[in-house]
From TrEMBL, chain A:
<dbReference type="InterPro" id="IPR025966">
    <property type="entry name" value="OppC_N"/>
</dbReference>
<keyword id="KW-0472">Membrane</keyword>
<keyword id="KW-1278">Translocase</keyword>
<keyword id="KW-0547">Nucleotide-binding</keyword>
<feature type="transmembrane region" description="Helical">
    <location>
        <begin position="216"/>
        <end position="239"/>
    </location>
</feature>
<dbReference type="Pfam" id="PF00005">
    <property type="entry name" value="ABC_tran"/>
</dbReference>
<feature type="domain" description="ABC transporter">
    <location>
        <begin position="327"/>
        <end position="576"/>
    </location>
</feature>
<feature type="region of interest" description="Disordered">
    <location>
        <begin position="1"/>
        <end position="21"/>
    </location>
</feature>
<feature type="domain" description="ABC transmembrane type-1">
    <location>
        <begin position="95"/>
        <end position="290"/>
    </location>
</feature>
TrEMBL record, chain B:
<dbReference type="Pfam" id="PF00528">
    <property type="entry name" value="BPD_transp_1"/>
</dbReference>
<feature type="transmembrane region" description="Helical">
    <location>
        <begin position="280"/>
        <end position="299"/>
    </location>
</feature>
<comment type="similarity">
    <text>Belongs to the binding-protein-dependent transport system permease family.</text>
</comment>
<keyword id="KW-1133">Transmembrane helix</keyword>
<keyword id="KW-0472">Membrane</keyword>
<feature type="transmembrane region" description="Helical">
    <location>
        <begin position="134"/>
        <end position="156"/>
    </location>
</feature>
<dbReference type="GO" id="GO:0005886">
    <property type="term" value="C:plasma membrane"/>
</dbReference>
<feature type="transmembrane region" description="Helical">
    <location>
        <begin position="99"/>
        <end position="122"/>
    </location>
</feature>
<dbReference type="InterPro" id="IPR035906">
    <property type="entry name" value="MetI-like_sf"/>
</dbReference>
Length: 599, 312
């Protein structure tokens, strides 16, 4: 159940704690769930404090005349239990016991968890690994059984039992605090230099205090519920000292379930009101920390659904395939819904074409929308993305109107993709070979697919294809992984290959080899290639034409040679200049040599 | 892989030794009147001294613990102070009841959590919200209330299943199932809430990763992406939560056995607690810790098997 207590990462707003505190308090006050649960908790505490005044009998006093007395009896207005005790006064006493149990258990676990979490997170190393080992050990214990087995030691006192429970629940708090301290400390390494004067410890405790406080309140609420439920559970089992408790009331009512089921109602109501308000408060507090409310989330969900529906209706009608180029994109826009339902457009009316056998570069800095454009063509944008276009077609077939199944059939033989970061684009749990074979199994039997993948691995320059075929991704190098991904992309003879910065993540020497490989494969298979890159060197090396993008717009389109000699747009000029500088700095010899060869 | 397993095994043995010695020293070390408890207030001091000697309670604690653990290794857990029944024999009579219930509960938890978690991750919407509600409900309503509610509904109002009692599977599998289905379902409710939420969370995280997009770009079906690739990679964190849920289910079985009057290890342990029957308490502790350590070890092996970096 610990995942419900998952901490939000270190909060950047920690820098303005006072402001954040006010914001959270305001958000809580506006949330009826939070207010309701706090009021319930306060009312129950008050009732239990006023018990001597508002009850007429001791919770342990039994009266023979009031055995199983019905609700509303004079002086026993919630009725009497099977031993003739006043249910009302027992209920109030039970609230007190539950609250005490919660306070002890929660207090102990928070103190232990925070102290050791701070030390382990701050000092690190040996202490951290020892503490983490011990707390993991505690986490793996059968808590309830150990509490019961140790009852002879605690002499049945529920307070001592709750103390033990607090110790056994402390690993959750420990983990939370430790991870957050480590997170804060990592961020502080950068800031620490700026803030001379203050000791790291001082900054750490101040930062950590504000960062950790919210998640700890949430976790404390959950721990309090666990304590209350365990206390009630043990009392239900009838082990431990004979104190009035929800558990013993439920146990009593359970034996009376056939005759007087109403007796079960009061302790259940009391217990659920208590734990329920704790949990609902924790949920509301979490929402307040995250700056969302359930209502707002629901609103935004509805808004997004509306937007997507509109887009779905609009898109197919707007598409009129002209079928001139192999890949035609005209006035492509991509937008994402904001939480309030309005649209945030990130790509604005981009147009490009790629003819068969042609290599087109899509150039721009990071954030210019080039990768978004590429993913839109592949149909691989996140679900919430709203894509509209006057035309987006491959081989005359409209892309945006396709069903997911049609799109899936298109991927592979129609359009294929080479990613930027090779290592994160292979499934770590499966062998390289099995991942590549999987895509081919749609069209050929397993043996043949395996044969084809082995051939391809050899073709992309992998020295020992058999071995790489059976390797897991973590066993091969980044350059090898990129060759594998290229093999995976061309395996299905795609008409269009979309390569997203295929060399950026690689060493300079490997970059040149991969570019050479791409050029060879493109000629061999007569593929059209859309090459997404920020590097004009790569463009000059491989491309026939180029589309320059900036801030989600296409600012210039043309032949590579023409753009290099007479860039029309200021931005293109600066891009070429800056990248030439970079080239000379890197002394990227193989690329420039290949460039001359290409012309 | 072998080294990894050995390390986990050693760590498991340490846990067993630490916990049993902790319980041993806490119980024997703090209670000075074991023999007096057994014989009752009317016994003479002489009788008490003789019993103390017979039980070996006059010897140093460390010696007693060493004796206990060496015979425990040989499967001898001593005899009950009060019934003189061997603890090991008593446990082997009672554990099948508990295990029937826990195993069925674990199976229900696994199947339901996978179904709910996968659906919630793939579809979102209603299933997702139902899952969140189950989570809150399982926290707010303690297992005893859920159990009593189910008994009231299914055994008393609807009369679909017997409300109490246990039928061994060897006598009648049908009646066996009828006798444990309600307890098992009750136990599973809490487990499903935690595990399904974890499966959903890990799956959603996995589905956002780069390699999933690349698999999609090759035309791999959504079914294979979700059921094969994402699930395989999400299984690690889910297994860790599963081992915690198992401990929770095993612990909660104490309540369930009481409510459904099942003759499992719970009533045995509870009696021993009330009486101060220490050999029984130690035996129950040992069995539960060994069980927990074994489950954790199995989960570790599964983790290692799932993760090629550990396996190869």
């Amino acid at each position: 159940m610990s995942q419900q207590l998952a901490p939000p990462g270190p909060d950047r707003t920690a820098a303005a704690p006072a402001k954040r505190k006010r914001r959270v308090t305001r958000a809580l006050l506006r949330n009826p769930m939070a207010v309701g649960s706090v009021v319930t908790l306060a009312a129950m505490t008050l009732l239990c404090l006023l018990a001597p005044v508002i009850t007429s009998h001791d919770p342990m006093y039994s009266s023979v005349e009031h055995v199983n007395a019905p609700t509303g009896t004079e002086g026993w207005w919630l009725g009497g239990d099977a031993q003739g005790r006043d249910m009302w006064s027992r209920l109030l006493a039970s609230i007190g016991v539950s609250l005490t149990a919660a306070l002890i258990g929660t207090g102990v676990s928070i103190v232990i968890g925070v102290v050791f979490g701070l030390i382990a997170g701050y000092v690190g190393r040996a202490i951290d690994s020892i503490a983490s080992w011990v707390f993991n050990l505690v986490l793996a214990l059968p808590t309830l059984l150990i509490l019961i087995v140790l009852l002879p030691v605690t002499r049945g006192s529920y307070q001592l039992t709750m103390l033990l429970l607090g110790v056994m629940l402390s690993p959750g708090v420990y983990r939370l605090v430790r991870n957050m301290v480590i997170g804060v400390r990592r961020e502080l390494y950068i800031d620490a230099a700026k803030v001379a004067g203050l000791s790291t410890w001082r900054i750490l405790t101040r930062h950590v205090f504000f960062v950790v406080r919210g998640p700890i309140v949430i976790q404390a609420a959950f721990i309090a519920t666990i304590c209350i439920n365990v206390q009630a559970g043990l009392a239900f089992l009838g082990v431990g000292a004979n104190t009035p408790s929800f558990g013993s009331m439920i146990s009593q009512a359970f034996t009376n379930l056939y005759g007087h089921p109403v007796q079960l109602l009061w302790p259940t109501l009391g217990l659920v009101a208590l734990t329920g308000s704790l949990i609902l408060f924790a949920n509301a507090y979490r929402d307040a920390l995250a700056g969302t409310t359930t209502a707002a989330r629901r609103r935004s969900r509805r808004a997004i659904a509306d937007v997507t529906r509109h887009a779905d209706e609009a898109a197919p009608a707007a598409e009129k395939p002209t079928g001139k180029a192999l890949l035609t994109v005209q006035d492509l826009s991509i937008a994402y819904p904001r939480p309030d339902g309005s649209l945030n457009e990130v790509v604005h009316k981009v147009s490009l074409t790629v003819d068969s056998g042609e290599v087109v570069g899509l150039v721009g800095e990071s954030g210019s929308g080039k990768t978004q454009t590429a993913f839109a063509i592949l149909g691989l944008l996140p679900h919430e993305a709203v894509v509209t276009a006057k035309e987006a077609s491959l081989d005359g077939r409209p892309l945006l109107a396709m069903t997911p199944a049609e799109l899936r059939k298109l991927r592979g033989p129609g359009v294929a993709y080479i990613p930027q970061e090779p290592m994160s684009n292979l499934d770590p749990s499966f062998t390289v070979g099995s991942q590549l074979v999987e895509a081919l199994r749609r069209t050929m039997p397993r043996v043949q697919a395996r044969q084809r993948v082995l051939e391809l691995l050899a073709r992309v320059g992998i020295p020992d294809p058999e071995r790489t075929f059976d390797s897991y991704p973590h066993q091969i190098s980044g350059g090898m992984a990129q060759r594998v991904l290229i093999a995976g992309a061309v395996a299905t003879h795609p008409k269009v290959l979309i390569a997203d910065e295929p060399t950026t993540a690689l060493d300079v020497t490997v970059q040149a080899e991969i570019l050479d490989l791409l050029r060879e494969l493109q000629r061999e298979l007569k593929m059209a290639v859309l090459l997404v890159t920020h590097n004009f060197g790569v463009v000059a090396d491989l491309c026939d034409r180029v589309v320059v993008m900036r801030d989600g717009r296409d600012v210039e389109t043309g032949e590579v040679r023409q753009i290099f000699s007479r860039p029309a747009h200021e931005y293109t000029k600066s891009l070429i200049d800056s990248i030439l500088d970079e080239e000379t700095l890197r002394t990227d010899a193989p690329v420039s040599k290949a460039k001359e060869g290409a012309r | 892989m072998i080294l990894f397993l050995l390390r986990r095994l050693v760590s498991g043995i340490i846990v067993i030794v630490v916990v049993t010695s902790l319980v041993f020293f806490l119980t024997y070390g703090t209670s000075i009147q074991i023999a007096r408890n057994i014989l009752g207030p009317s016994a003479s001091d002489e009788q008490v001294a003789i019993l103390n000697e017979n039980l070996g309670l006059d010897r140093p604690l460390f010696e007693q613990y060493f004796d206990w653990i060496t015979s425990a290794v040989h499967g001898d857990l001593g005899v009950s102070y009060f019934t003189s029944e061997p603890v090991a024999a008593a446990l082997s009579n009672r554990l099948p009841v508990t295990f029937s219930m826990v195993i069925v509960a674990v199976l229900i938890t696994l199947i339901a959590s996978l179904a709910l978690g996968i659906t919630a991750a793939a579809r979102g919407g209603v299933v997702d919200r139902v899952l969140q509600s189950i989570g809150t409900i399982s926290y707010v309503f303690p297992v005893i209330i859920i159990a009593i509610g189910l008994v009231y509904l299914f055994a008393i109002v609807l009369r679909w299943v017997p409300s109490i009692g246990f039928v061994p599977i060897t006598r009648s599998p049908g009646h066996w199932l009828a006798s444990i289905i309600l307890p098992s379902v009750t136990l599973a409710v809490g487990g499903i809430a935690g595990l399904a939420a974890q499966i959903r969370g890990s799956l959603v995280d996995e589905l956002g990763l780069d390699y999933i997009r690349t698999l999609r770009s090759r035309g791999v079906s959504e079914r294979a992406i979700l059921g094969k690739h994402a699930l395989r990679n999400a299984a690690g964190p889910a297994l860790t939560v599963f081992s915690l849920q198992f401990i929770g289910i095993f612990g909660a079985s104490l309540f369930i056995e009481r409510i459904f009057a099942l003759p499992g290890y719970g009533a045995y342990a509870m009696n021993a607690t009330v009486q101060g029957d220490f050999p029984v308490l130690l035996g129950v502790t040992l069995v539960s810790v060994v069980l927990v350590v074994t489950v954790n070890l199995i989960v570790d092996v599964a983790q290692g098997w799932l993760n090629p970096k550990v396996r190869t």
